[in-house]
Amino acid sequence: MSLALIKSRALLGLAAPEVRVEVHLANGLPAFNLVGLPETAVKESRDRVRSALLTAGFEFPSRRITVNLSPADLPKEGGRYDLPIALGILVASGQVPATQVDNFEFVGELALNGELRAVKGILPTALAVAQKKGKLLLPADNAAEAALVSQLEVRAASHLLDVSGYLLGQVPLPLAEAGSLAPEVHTGPDLADIKGQAAAKRALEIAAAGGHNLLFKGPPGSGKTLLASCLPGLLPALDEEEALQVAAIDSITRGFDPGRWRQRPFRSPHHSSSAVALVGGGSNPRPGEISLAHQGVLFLDELPEFARQVLEVLREPLESGEIHLARAARRATYPARFQLVAAMNPCPCGHLGNSEQSCSCSPGQIQRYQGRLSGPLLDRIDLHLEVPVLPPEELWKPSQGESSQQVRARVVQARQRQKQRAGKLNAHLSAAELEAGVPLDSELQQLLSQAMTKMKLSARAAHRVLKVALTLADLEEHKLSRHHLLEAMGYRQFL
Question: Any transmembrane segments, and where (predicted)?
């Protein structure tokens, strides 16, 4: 047979579209042509495949070889097509039966001696193959990652000879296993270790329970960063679907790490980061910090020090929970359902309102500093809280208060109530879902209307106040009432 067809997968963002590797052998002068929009690493597979086949003891056909990666308009990159191309040549030249490759999809890079090397993006590939109810054969170093998809049959091999031997029925390839995964353990600071700051701890609990965004404002040394780093310890462990989403993003960026399984991400980019670093991009769009923080926490310290155009790109993903990247040749969509926690000083010197030290900034400097944050961005942050500096005498007292584990138990219960009521967290409710699911009596409607007038709240801000009030009611296992709404309004005082 002079024509072979091998199934594989490309990688386009978090999608893994099917690629058909078509190999044709024809008479004529020996040549190896690779078509189908391959980039440099794919073109170089010609030399890797030739060397791997020869060193493994196979015959490399002295004929005109044409390899087409279909669909032709889909960009192909990386070494993941080495194994499918090599198998295509073996099938087309009759060294491996064609019927044996139809049941599998193949992904893997070849070394010159025929060994199989791991490739990035295996988890999105495995999820796509499982959706089609197929089977996957890949390098042994990728086996544990692909086996996380429990409904997928995964076979792994270390050498091209093992693959050919399995297809010929001579060598068994056992089913891949996920291996040992690290238990979900929070290693960050504990709320019980933080002295004072009862209001800030209360805001953290509310943010964790409802998935709300949070802004701390206070002088340097008041503990804003320490408080923010406690938030992951208040959040419940990722369920399997969420953990697979986080692992898939890791798979295409830094590689899957079993030690981070079911752990919520905590990302803290420097304020000099560009918009591309934050949301992702490049000629071949890659995930940015907001996608790496998916299902976790994005902490922006010194918020006004970020360039304004950088902060403005957060507005869309804060609403939609995903980011759409469009470049000249490619488009990609990445999830970005994160909790934003930000911290800022009240003025350039940082001591405005500090009872322990006087502020040296002029009114104009303070206004320009705070004006670096746009109203629409602040509108999307549910909780705004002043964090004062602790008096010196408080620093030497033993810390008192609940531990993160105790608060986390209440957070888990509140989240369960929200999931049972609406199928999602309060922070993710649309305006229509909020109004339909939480009918307000005339007293609460009047109170909210008065607050919108006096506090000059937009409709979006009013809905966010209502979401926070609903979370407060969930924490108390109580029906939404007046005091919940009043407390929620108190978290938008300093705007």
Answer: none
Distance CA 143, CA 178 (A): 7
Name the nearest CA neighbour of 424 among 382, 465, 474: 474
Angstrom distance (rounded) from CA 334 to CA 322: 6
DSSP H or E segment with residue 455: helix 442-455
pLDDT single digits (tens) 5-53: 999 999 988 899 999 999 999 998 899 999 998 998 899 999 999 999 9
Q: What is the maximum alpha-carbon separation in the chain?
A: 90
Q: Which of 294, 334, 336 is nearest to 315 (CA)?
A: 336
Q: How far apart are CA 70 and CA 89, in angstroms?
A: 16
Q: Say how far apart CA 421 and CA 56 lie, in whole Å.
A: 60
pLDDT tens digit sequence for 415-467 = 999 999 988 999 998 888 888 777 788 888 888 888 888 888 888 888 899 99
Is the CATH number of domain 3-167 3.20.20.370? Answer: no
pTM: 0.88
- The span from the CA of 212 to the CA of 467, in Å, is 9
**Contact between 170 and 357 (Cβ < 8 Å):** no
In this structure, whether the domain defined by 191-425 belongs to CATH 2.60.40.1090 is answered with no
Domain ranges of the chain: 3-167, 191-425, 429-495
- CA-CA-CA-CA torsion for 318, 320, 322, 325, nearest 10 degrees? -90
